[in-house]
């Protein structure tokens, strides 16, 4: 058990200074003053110079690796546990990407189970960029209902030269099947949508909301900040139709494309434009390839996405862009938890999972990361490593 004393809690809302008791993998109590019960073996941590944040949720991670746009040698490697935990992330949703051939759903599920055994919480989407969607059971709906870790479909690519160029009706059917699978299983039924830089922008999502009874909570378009024009269309999509948008954090801030918007800046843009703070999320695209193409579509170069960028952009939103900490935190905690229907994740409260981050009060540098009550990072260094990390 752990008793963390005198820590300023952002749950993500500002709760002020409290004590927090942790045991059995969950938060047992949050109160003004909690004594250490001598009947139990309790480790007491002084949080007086710290803030406590919920463990981050990354809803778009290529845990198997991704890429391949430059041939087999350009396939990015599988993620390791500390690639995740050092960035304060305690829950990930794994997905396939461009390559649904050499990266498969069976591999994805096995990797997710392995990461769970190593200490974090994991879920997956069924499918990849391609339409018709490749599934394990032969059906999107069956995958969502029957496979415990499957919470939705994705990432489905639209408005991109690497997509299968589905019709609007085909796309609507994917969203409909995913939604019904979610209803029947009590899961999110969320479709994670890769947005390319095509001229259609969010037209497919608008079609679904304007021509069906499906609510916006079943669709999460990502990479919205890949260009200013797409960012502006995403803001309008939220304001006019009540949709949700996801900003990708893995872009290198020092090498942004001319029209690209940094995720932290994109959050500020959205909030200033009147987008409700509950309708914006961040995800890292971690371990996916970050390809750059010439105008004729040939590959120019590749980078690798980092899960640690999720915390960096949340922190930059606060320290550089002037967003309130509680607002910036929502994008990586409570908001994805709500969309993914994970009631025990994304917040600090009694009877939820003890996924949390202790960070320096002034500069928000990570000190301690706990996943389900187990210390994964201490003093900013990994103390629990994955099976093949030494």
Given the helix and strand composition, which structural class is it? alpha/beta
> Largest beta sheet, briefly?
9 strands, mixed
The DSSP helix count reads: 10
Question: Secondary-structure element sequence?
Answer: EEEEEEHEHEHEHEHEHEHEEEHHHEEEE
Shape: globular
- Return the average pLDDT rounded to an integer: 95
Which segments are poorly predicted (pLDDT under 50) over 5 or more consecutive residues? none
What is the CA-atom radius of gyration, in angstroms?
Answer: 20 Å
* Quaternary structure annotation: single chain
Helix content: 25-40%
Walkthrough of the structure:
With 390 residues, this protein is of the alpha/beta class. Helix content is 26%, strand content 26%. It has helices at 81-85, 105-118, 140-146, 168-185, 203-211, 228-241, 263-272, 309-319, 325-330, 334-340, and strands spanning 2-10, 14-23, 26-31, 43-46, 50-54, 56-61, 89-94, 121-126, 150-158, 190-195, 219-222, 245-248, 280-283, 292-293, 299-301, 356-360, 366-371, 374-378, 381-382. α4 packs across α5 (203-211) and α7 packs across α8. The longest helix is centred in the middle third of the chain and has 18 residues, at 168-185. It starts with a strand and ends in an 8-residue tail after the last strand. The relative contact order is 0.18.
Produce a short descriptive summary.
By secondary structure, the protein is an alpha/beta fold. The protein is built from ten helices and 19 strands.
Keywords:
single chain; 390 residues; alpha/beta; 9-stranded mixed β-sheet; 6-stranded parallel β-sheet; 26% strand; globular
């Amino acid at each position: 058990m752990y008793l963390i004393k005198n820590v300023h809690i952002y749950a993500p809302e500002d709760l002020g200074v409290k004590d927090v008791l942790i045991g059995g993998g969950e938060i047992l109590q949050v109160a003004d003053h909690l004594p250490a019960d001598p009947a139990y073996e309790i480790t007491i941590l002084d949080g007086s110079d710290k803030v406590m944040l919920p463990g981050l949720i990354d809803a778009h991670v290529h845990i198997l690796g991704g890429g391949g746009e430059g041939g087999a040698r350009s396939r990015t490697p599988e993620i390791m546990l500390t690639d995740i935990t050092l960035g304060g992330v305690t829950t990930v949703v794994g997905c396939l990407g461009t390559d649904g051939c050499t990266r498969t759903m069976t591999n994805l599920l096995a990797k997710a189970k392995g990461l769970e055994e190593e200490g974090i919480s994991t879920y997956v989407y069924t499918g990849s960029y391609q339409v018709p969607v490749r599934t394990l059971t032969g059906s999107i709906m069956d995958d969502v209902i029957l496979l415990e870790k499957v919470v939705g479909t994705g990432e489905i690519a639209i408005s991109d030269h690497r997509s299968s160029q589905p019709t609007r009706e085909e796309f609507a059917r994917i969203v409909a099947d995913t939604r019904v699978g979610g209803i029947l299983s009590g899961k999110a039924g969320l479709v994670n949508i890769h947005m390319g830089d095509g001229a259609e922008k969010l037209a497919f999502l608008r079609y679904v909301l304007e021509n069906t009874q499906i609510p916006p909570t079943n669709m999460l378009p990502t990479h919205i900040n890949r260009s200013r024009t797409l960012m502006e269309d995403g803001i309008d999509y939220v304001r006019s139709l009540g949709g949700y948008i996801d900003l990708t954090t893995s872009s290198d801030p020092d090498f942004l494309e001319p029209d690209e918007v940094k995720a932290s800046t994109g959050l500020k843009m959205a909030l200033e434009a009147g987008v409700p703070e509950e309708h914006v999320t961040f995800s890292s695209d971690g371990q996916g390839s970050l390809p750059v193409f010439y105008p004729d579509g040939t590959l120019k170069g590749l980078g690798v996405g980092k899960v640690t960028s999720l915390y960096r952009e949340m922190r930059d939103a606060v320290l550089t862009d002037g967003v309130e900490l509680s607002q910036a935190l929502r994008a990586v905690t409570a908001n994805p938890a709500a969309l993914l229907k994970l009631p025990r994740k994304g917040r600090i409260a009694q009877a939820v999972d003890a996924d949390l981050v202790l960070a320096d009060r002034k500069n928000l540098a990570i000190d301690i990361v706990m996943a389900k009550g187990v210390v994964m990072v201490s003093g900013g260094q990994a103390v629990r490593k994955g099976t093949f990390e030494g």
